[in-house]
């Protein structure tokens, strides 16, 4: 693989293209300043304005959300896995029908595998622009989002309507529901009863891992975060490992799987037959299954990254206590 071919598989943090109208709450006060990024795969965006950096999916999607302080993402539910790690800032994740069943605050490097089938939201509670990186289960993550009824009602008051076809229509741009397309129906009270309300104590032990705990676990070998015999619950169609400067190896490997490298801290030297490149914090690299490569920090000091790899497991299961 030539350096040019590999560069086409690397999405640089500084070159990310945001979409400011990705979801139904894009005009709702409190959520109207957020930016969404579709890095690998189309993600779950409901807007035609999104820019997809790498279209081919490796069994999962990669995205990101950038938000200024006090900006939040509204309550919604996923049928497949939604995993976040904090790249920049301080974030509060909350869940439940009204967002008050439980919550957890994540710092930089922390990771959460939010249980499927529950309403969840998140907000930047830091003092600067924050960024969280997302991993979504399955090749086709679209159509798997269900919004809490109050989110759809609030959005309608601010000019955005979600059609039953899953597409978003913005009256501020002169867009309206096409003939024959009805608005997305609201969940009934009976349907809402099927959405679990796990407490903070239910979620944190099996679904949240702290950055400095993972640094300690990755002292000699990569720490298993999600997957077989991993720190967090569920096998959602991909596995996640955490690699630190201490557990990195310059040994050449061919995983036979799709490896996606997501840098948290430091600069990493990626070497393969045909070239080399350096990955910086916030960069995402999609390594093809057949490529033999090595990855080590390019300088001394703290360095860490998350490696996501596709598996043969299903793309997510519903929440079980």
Automatic annotation (TrEMBL):
InterPro entries noted in UniProt: Cupin_2, RmlC-like_jellyroll, RmlC_Cupin_sf
One matching Pfam family: Cupin_2
Highest taxon above the source species: Bacteria
Organism whose genome encodes this protein: Marivivens donghaensis
Domain Cupin type-2 span(s) in chain numbering: 69-126
Identification of the protein by name: Cupin domain-containing protein
């Amino acid at each position: 693989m030539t350096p040019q071919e590999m560069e086409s598989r690397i999405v640089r943090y500084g070159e990310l293209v945001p979409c400011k109208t990705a979801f139904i709450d894009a005009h709702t006060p409190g959520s109207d300043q957020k930016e969404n990024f579709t890095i690998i795969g189309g993600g779950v965006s409901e807007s035609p304005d999104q820019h997809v950096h790498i279209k081919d999916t490796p069994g999962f999607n990669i995205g990101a959300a950038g938000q200024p302080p006090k900006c939040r993402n509204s309550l919604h539910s996923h049928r497949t896995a939604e995993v976040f790690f904090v790249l920049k800032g301080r974030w509060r994740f909350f869940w439940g029908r009204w967002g008050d069943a439980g919550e957890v605050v994540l710092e930089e490097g922390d990771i959460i595998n939010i249980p499927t089938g529950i309403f969840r939201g998140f907000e930047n509670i830091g003092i600067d622009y924050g960024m969280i990186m997302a991993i979504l289960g399955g090749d086709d993550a679209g159509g798997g989002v269900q919004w809490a009824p109050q989110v759809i009602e609030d959005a309608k008051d601010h000019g955005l309507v979600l059609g039953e076809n899953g597409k978003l229509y913005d009256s501020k741009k002169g867009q309206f529901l096409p003939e024959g397309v009805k608005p997305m129906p609201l969940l009934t009270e009976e349907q809402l009863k099927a959405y679990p309300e796990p407490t903070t104590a239910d979620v944190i032990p099996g679904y949240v891992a702290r950055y400095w705990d993972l640094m300690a676990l990755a002292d000699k070998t990569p720490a298993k975060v999600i997957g077989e015999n991993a720190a967090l619950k569920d096998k959602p169609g991909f596995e996640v490992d955490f690699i630190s400067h201490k557990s990195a190896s310059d040994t050449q490997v061919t995983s036979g799987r799709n490896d996606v490298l997501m840098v948290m801290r430091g600069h990493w030297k990626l070497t393969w037959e045909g070239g080399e490149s350096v990955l910086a914090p916030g960069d995402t690299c999609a390594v093809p299954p057949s490529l033999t490569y090595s990855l080590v920090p390019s300088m001394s000091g703290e360095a860490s990254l998350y490696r996501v790899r596709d598996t043969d497991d299903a793309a997510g299961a519903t929440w079980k206590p």
